[in-house]
Amino acid sequence: MKKLKGEIWEFRTKFSGNQYRLLAFWDKTLPKETLVISTHGISKKVSKVPKAEIEKAERIRDEYFKQKNL
After folding, report:
1. What is the DSSP letter of 55?
2. Burial of 43 per CB tally in 10 Å (0-12, 13-18, 19+)
3. Closest by Cα among 7, 40, 36, 6 to 23
4. Which of 13, 20, 23, 28 could disulfide-link 57, Cβ–Cβ 3.0 to 4.6 Å?
5. Are 23 and 43 a contacting pair, CB within 8 Å?
6. Nearest-10 Cα torsion for 62, 63, 66, 68
7. What are phi and psi of 36, to 5 degrees?
8. Rounded to 5 degrees, what are φ and ψ at 51?
9. Cα–Cα dist 8/57, whole Å
10. Which pLDDT band holds residue 70 (cuts at 50, 70, 90)?
11. How many of the other CB atoms lie within 10 Å of CB of 11?
12. Using the 8-state DSSP alphabet, how is residue 37 labeled?
């Protein structure tokens, strides 16, 4: 697990010789619970997570909290 930017975290896994990344964030607004939300996953092709993928995760996080507060 590694913090990428702001509130976006990266979970790493390897399966059948391929490396995958799951981008996620925490929802700590629930009483007595913390929910981990995975925004999306990518197959690792370069050493760093592409900036566009981090931005996508941030947009999904923003939309999640926007919808939750309606």
Report:
1. H
2. exposed
3. 40
4. 23
5. no
6. -110
7. -100, 125
8. -55, -40
9. 7
10. low
11. 14
12. E
